[in-house]
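Reading a protein record of the kind used here takes only a little practice. The record below shows the convention in full.

——
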Amino acid sequence: MKLSVLAMATSRLLAPRTAVCEKPFEPNGTPLVWWHYNGNGGLQPGKGLSGTYAAFQDHVQLEGWGHLHMQAEATLEGAYAAGFLEGYMTSVHIFEHYVSWLQAQFGQVSVHAGGSMRHAWTAQGGRVRKFIEDNDRWVRQQVAENHASPYWQTVGRLMAQADGLLAGQQAATRNTTAMQLRRTDMLLLLASGDMYDIQPAVHQEKRVNWAALDAANFMKEFHKGVSCSALVTYSEDAVRAGHTTWTSYNNMLRIYKRVTWAIRGRPVHKVAFSSRPGYLYSKDDFYTLPLQRMVVMETTNAIFNNSLYDKVRPEALMVWQRVPVSNFLAQDGPHWAKLFSRHNSGTYNNMWIAITLDRASKSSLEDGFLTIAEQIPGEVKVTDVTPVVRKQGYFSSYNVPYDAGIYEAAGYPRHVERMGPENSYMNCSRAKIFRRDAPEARGSMQAFKRVMGSNNYQADPESHGDPSKAIMARGDLSPYRPELFGAVDLKVTEAVPGGEGWDGIAWARSGPTTDNQPPFSWLNIPDGEPVLHLGQPDVFNFDFIPMAFHDAEGIAAPIDSLGDSDGVRIAQRRREGKRAPEENHLQWLVPISTAAAASPMKVTPFSLGLCAAGAIGFLSLVLRPVRQHSHVPGEEESVYFLHA
């Protein structure tokens, strides 16, 4: 990596963009600086007239997080503009994260002052490229052929957003071509979670021979494909959810994103999620969905049965595509799992956890309160684990499948037989730690944070002296074989059972845990350590940050208190025009006949400055229904549209 070129390119880009980030985020409410897409390859200040606008606050060095706030019209044009805004505002960070990720994924990366990025993909990388390009063609073909389907219309908007993301990043870096991503670069970055399984699927020598590994190398390979700890607790006082992302430390450049999708200015979907530059989904994953009153998160499971990779095909929807679509359309957790199960790619194989807050009261939990969807190539198993929460007051997740069939098919029994019972669902270190400490976490938000942020490997008997055997792993602290891998954040949220005022607020802390451990510092890493970490803070020693949505005036929702013994409680306020408790956010959608839904589609090019396919190699013609915008919760047979 030619760092002198990188420094020059970064300095040239940052100067004209500082106005985007000129006001700090304050929990008591601070105006944001809004920008909108001008339709001609650039941004203009203000919200404009299109209904799509955004603000970005670059607080990575101050807080460990950048903050993206966006409102967008749920149309193809609105989705494209939303992508363009994000790509333009975060263009430098997209480049920084992509190069750091690419080096970890494929090896050496070089940047040329007068040209583009070059990387050592070799034959293996070429097969990956072919897979993602084949997938992109298939997805766009399905959007075109299924234009009457609300499901595929939602996919189409996501792909338009991806087109805009690339166009915005390229527009912001037009004078520094060394920092421009190409079409395939962006597709690779979007599919970085799916890449865990794409590589062994397309190249057999990338499949790990688990039986040939000793314990140390086994854990090293295991960490490459699994990540995260998650916990859900229930008491009469609060439902709490927490998630900590495990990954390589090259991935610690973070942006927390809040997006409101609207139809004619009226919100129909709000989502906030921890993320990274250049992603249209979380990848961690952790989402709060306040209009649906849902929380969605995941932990990744390993695939020890290599024969499953033979089922992976590009003719499917990858996780980066299925998750935003499921988030947008879902009515509740069971419905989310049903939507997610469609068109399973068999890539990024996780246990997904969907919490439906409206199914919790102070005295009981309704079925469907907590739904999990566990994916392997060829299958997604959906289970209602609400009975588990009723019985023990919590449900935890830690990279081991819950369902016996998925556990067996993924090859876990043979792994446990060889490596020992402490790697099983019931007896692994985190299972025991959660079993011991989760009852305490039910008592208060302070206790919940303490449990979710814990790593006391020197004294905890369940950690066996290994800092990777904790809720928040710190592989860099291993006295035997340190590696730059571990838990890199912590996000928590809570809601009052039966309450109506949950606005999707979460509290997030960036970086490896500092509970009982020293802050992680890149300054302490030997110079020879080949891990790029462009754009990251030198030292991660940050506090929890409240991640609130902003209202139409760009003011943060007021917060009652911070850090009290019962945790942070959001004000149960009711803004004028906000839905009543019994109102479903989809009720103003009216059904039309199947014949009308199947009416001929008008082929319309994006009139947003990217309609020439040769400009960047993107498909620029998109099919869309004339004067109709869809947003529907149900199956494809249940079609709803707004009155035009």
Notes: The chain has 18 helices and 27 strands. The longest strand covers residues 266-275. The radius of gyration is 23 Å. The chain has one domain: 57-547.
